[in-house]
Specification:
This protein is α/β, with parallel strands linked by helices. Helix content is 30%, strand content 26%. The protein is built from twelve helices and 19 strands. The radius of gyration is 20 Å and the shape is globular.
Length: 358
């Protein structure tokens, strides 16, 4: 089968091969025919070595498709079911799951260290234990979440990561209050989803911050009341909050520099939500006095900060009701053979989400 493979960390191009085999099928596992997958910035981060991932590997973790076959003991899905790929499934038995913090379950991360593909030259890993830049993938049954027949594969793929992460950051982690002021730094697919979440919660002012003009223009269509470049953020802070700072600031880039900017633009007693996935050696510097004196809440948001399955269901319900726009997030479509075109679209910032059609 065909798949896009990164040979070594640090390479900026993927190679398409047709001699890849999905491995590991057996009890408790399912084989999925991938129909659509989104390109998430985390895929680029893993390719660059910002996020830890063994190589060679197949990127992609935001996918949807249909079940080809199920292993012994699998009861949640059957052959022919339409599913979204969940890269962070809950085991239901660990301390985090028992506390109701299923987004902190580590079972999914353990899958990332086990190869689930192979080529004639040896084993190949799937990013985050999945690897959806391929025609087929074998994953644990918990990674295959059934979706209704009326949800298109491209929409379902977005729900698998970016939309769930952004919406959840606003709805679950921040619990944005009606009438509040919000700034979102980084307005790709995840940032725009956070904007939609803040709008759903009734935020009065939502300022989108991004260096790319097309993304700023898009953010206004999704609910932002104002869109500015990073250099214009101080003026926006002054005009919207009289210089006090925003009630909520979402950092959706994953860098200490933007997290520091987000902190400085959060009002005293306000909330900074860290959504972007950054590097282990990139440290955010805060002094002990400002932490004490400003009483700003710093809330990391992992995969939307809530129960993933419930978040999927909520997102589908909101989409059906016309309360959120998911179709508009897909700004570009490319076939798998043109995957490097999709990478360039994300690196230059021209896309919110590129759908890779497989």
């Amino acid at each position: 089968m065909r798949a896009a493979v990164l040979h070594e960390i640090g390479q900026d191009k993927l190679e398409i091969f047709d001699d890849v085999e999905a491995t590991g099928f057996g009890p408790g596992r399912v084989r999925i025919r991938v129909r659509a997958t989104g390109l998430c910035h985390s895929d680029l981060s893993a390719m660059a070595g910002v996020l830890p991932q063994p190589a060679p590997f197949i990127p992609g973790h935001e996918g949807a498709g249909e079940i080809l076959e199920v292993g012994e003991g699998v009861t949640n899905v059957k052959a022919g079911d339409r599913v979204v790929v969940c890269w962070l499934p809950a085991c239901g038995a660990c301390p985090a799951c028992k506390r109701g913090q299923t987004e902190l379950c580590l079972a999914g991360f353990m899958n990332a260290g086990t190869p689930n593909f192979k080529r004639p030259g040896g084993d190949v890993f799937g990013f985050a234990g999945t690897g959806t830049f391929t025609e087929e993938v074998v994953v644990d049954a918990g990674c295959a979440v059934p979706i209704p027949d009326d949800v298109p594969f491209d929409i379902a793929a977005l729900i698998g990561c970016g939309v769930t992460t952004g919406l959840g950051a606003a709805l679950n982690t921040a619990d944005v209050e009606a009438g509040s002021s919000v700034a979102v730094i980084g307005c790709g697919g995840v940032g725009v989803s956070a904007i939609q979440g803040a709008r759903l919660r009734g935020a009065a002012e939502i300022v989108a911050v991004d260096p790319v003009l097309s993304r700023r223009e898009a953010a206004l269509k999704f609910g932002a009341t104002k869109a500015v470049s990073p250099d214009e953020l101080p003026d926006a802070k002054q005009s919207v909050t009289a210089g006090e700072g925003f009630d909520y600031v979402f950092e959706v880039v994953g860098r200490s520099a933007t997290a520091r900017t987000a902190y400085e633009n959060t009002r005293r007693g306000g909330t900074l939500v860290v959504v972007g996935a950054g590097a282990m050696d990139d440290f955010l510097q805060l002094n002990m006095f400002e932490l004490f004196f400003d009483e700003k809440r710093i809330l990391p948001s992992m995969y939307g900060g809530g129960d993933v399955l419930r978040s999927y269901e909520r997102t589908i319900a909101l989409w059906r009701a016309g309360r959120i726009d998911l179709e508009g997030l897909i700004t570009h479509r490319v076939p798998l053979v043109d995957i490097n075109e999709a990478l360039d679209q994300m690196r230059t910032g021209v896309s919110l989400r590129t759908c890779i059609e497989i």
